[in-house]
Every structure is written in C-alpha cells, then in structure tokens.
Design brief:
By secondary structure, the protein is an all-alpha fold. It contains 13 helices and no strands.
Length: 368
C-alpha cells in the first residue's frame, strides 16, 4: 500500500465525520436503556455468583458456576460498562452513576489514572513510539523501533504473567511511566499529578480491592472463607486473562503500524483518523462476544469514535470498512484465534534481535 495524500486525508476526515455525526444524531433513549439494562445484568451476575460460590460446600459444581457468574460480572463491569462509561460515551444522560468523572470500577486501577493514561494519552498518541505508553506497556518489545535487550528473550513469559495480573499492570502503568518507585523520570515527561497523589491513589484503590475480594467477602462467609477466597481469586484471574487478550488483539496483531513523533507533528484530523485505522485491529464474532469485549472487537471504530456509545460500532463498521477500501487503507480484522495467534507471534518474534518484517510489522515511515 502507499500513503494517501493530504487532499485524500481531508476528504477522509469529512467522510468519517459524517459517519460519526449520523450516529450521534440518533443517540438517545435506546442507548440509555441499553446501558441501564446491561448494568442490571452485571449486578445480577455478581449477586448470583457470590451466592453460588458460598454454596460450593454443597457441591463443587455450584462453586464452578459461581466463579463463571462472578467472572461474567467483572468482565461486563470492566469492558462494556466501565471502559465505555469512562470514555464519556454516556455523559449526556446526566446520570451521576453513569458519568465518566464519577464512575469507579471493579478493578485495581484508579479510574482517574486510567482516564489520564488510556483515555487521553493512548487515544491521542496511538502507536506513536515513546509517546504511547500502552505500546508494550514498557515491558514488551513489539517492534524494532526499540533496541533489543537481553531481557527480551523471556518476554513471552513476561506477557503471560502480565496477562494473569493484568488489573495490577494497568494500575501500576502510570506509576511505572512516571518512574515513581524505580528509575529516573524522563526529561520530556510532564505530569500534572504529583508522585504522592499517584502513590496514594494506587495503594488506596488497590487496597480496597484486596480487602473486598480477599478479606471482607470471605470473612462474611464464615466457615466457607477459603471457598470464597478461592472463588474471588479465580474470577479475577479469568477477567484478567480475558481483558488482556482482547486489548492486545486490538493493537499488536501483525499489520498494526507504528509511527514516530516527527511523522505526527502538526497532524490534521484526517491524518489522525488515518493513524487510528492503521494502528488498530478488529475481531470478528457474534453479538454476545462483542458485548463481552466491550465492543473493543471493533477497535478500529472505537479509535475513530471513542465517545460514541460502543454498541453502535456494529452499525458503523460497514461504512468504515467501505471508506477504508475506497482509500486503499487496510482494514485489519479477523477471527479471535487468528488475531490472538498473531499477537503471540509478534511477542515471540521480537524476543530476538531480528529486524522487523516490513510486511508483517509495518512502520508508517516505510510507506512510499
């Protein structure tokens, strides 16, 4: 593929703005009903899950179903509800609970930290090396934009550990980037949040999660303390593995482009749209699958329109795909197995001191 020119970028911006404006003009009661009904399902799943886990002393099958139900609750809370509410997709409802500035989710990461690092930083500087701290989370070498180091040899193991402990990785993400505990802060790094504020939020939110899942609810179960402790641990691990996998499939498949800071200086709206399309990847699937991913299975549409209620990405994807084809822009999509294998391959490929494959791991500056 070749780069599109400035005139095409301007035209691209107009067409994608039209897609966005059309959907936003239709946002209303249907969207309010959708998110409120989903919250009811999530809360019901949590209550049922916690009851069944305690009843696991009757038969382990109840405990297993309880873990599944609690895992479902945590996945819905984090993905379709938390992620999208924190993007401000439902702020127009003026509902104090479903508001991006007030919502707090069932995860170790403080919501305010997530808004700063993900909602603003990642979505502004998507896949720009050294600006987007989500690219590899500072732990993984996922392109040859970064020099190879000996520690990269075992990054496949690091990836697995990160996935199991993903909520804590997300929680520690901003502190690691600001070198709060280890290392020297980068000269060009400016933060409006002090190290003390970051540490307070990290320990406060993380501590509450530990107390809730591993002390309070197990203690309420009395003699069944260990059943509940183990059930909560299992549900958290299942949620962590799922969210990590979906998020990695959104940007780290083969075919996901990387960019340099210089290439994105004085970026127009059209170029920004263009970068989001080149840096994101979708996953095909059914309705339930898309809900469980928080519709991040439509990562391309999410990065183009992060403030549009996510369940609308299904309808928007057809028009976006047609626009991508019109301008010769790759529309990166595929089944879950294909996209996940692609992520694993990328993690393993860059474990070694090899040059990136231009076809599999393209960089924007290599386009003509």
């Amino acid at each position: 593929m070749n780069k599109i020119n400035e005139e095409q970028m301007a035209s691209l911006a107009l067409e994608l703005n039209t897609v966005r404006d059309k959907q936003l003009s239709e946002v209303g009661q249907t969207d309010a009903n959708y998110i409120r009904n989903l919250i009811k399902v999530q809360r019901s799943a949590e209550i049922i899950g916690r009851i069944l886990i305690v009843l696991g002393f009757i038969t382990p099958i109840l405990w297993v179903f309880g873990v599944i139900s609690l895992s479902l609750s945590k996945i819905l809370d984090n993905m379709e509800i938390g992620h999208n509410v924190l993007h401000g997709q439902y702020d127009w409802m003026n509902d104090p609970y479903i508001n991006s500035q007030k919502f707090e989710w069932d995860i170790a990461c403080d919501a305010a930290s997530w808004r700063r690092v993900h909602n603003y930083e990642h979505h502004t500087y998507t896949n720009i090396i050294s600006k987007d701290r989500d690219f590899g989370y500072g732990l993984l070498r996922l392109s040859n934009d970064y020099p190879w180091r000996l520690k990269n040899l075992w990054q496949s193991v690091i990836y697995f550990i990160l996935s199991v402990l993903f909520q804590w990785g997300v929680s520690f993400h901003e502190l690691a980037g600001e070198r709060v505990f280890f290392g020297k802060k980068k000269d060009n790094r400016e933060s409006k949040t002090s190290d003390e504020q970051l540490k307070k939020a990290f320990f406060s939110k993380g501590g509450r999660q530990i107390v809730k899942d591993y002390i309070l609810f197990p203690a309420l179960a009395g003699p069944f303390f260990l059943w509940v402790f183990a059930g909560n641990l299992a549900a958290n691990i299942i949620r962590n593995l799922w969210t990590s996998t979906i998020i990695f499939c959104g940007h780290f498949t083969s075919g996901s482009f990387t960019f340099t800071e210089k290439e994105c200086e004085n970026e127009s709206k059209g170029h920004w749209y263009y970068r989001q399309m080149l840096g994101s990847a979708n996953i095909t699937g059914g309705k339930v699958f898309h809900i469980l991913t928080g519709h991040l299975s439509f990562q391309v549409e999410h990065h183009l329109f992060p403030d549009v209620p996510a369940h609308r990405y299904v309808a928007m994807s057809k028009e976006v795909k047609e626009i991508a084809e019109k301008y010769g822009i790759p529309y990166n999509t595929g089944g879950f197995a294909k996209q996940y294998f692609s992520v694993l391959k990328r993690v393993f490929y860059f474990s070694f001191p090899v040059r990136g494959n231009k076809t599999l791991y393209p960089k924007y500056n290599e386009l003509e």
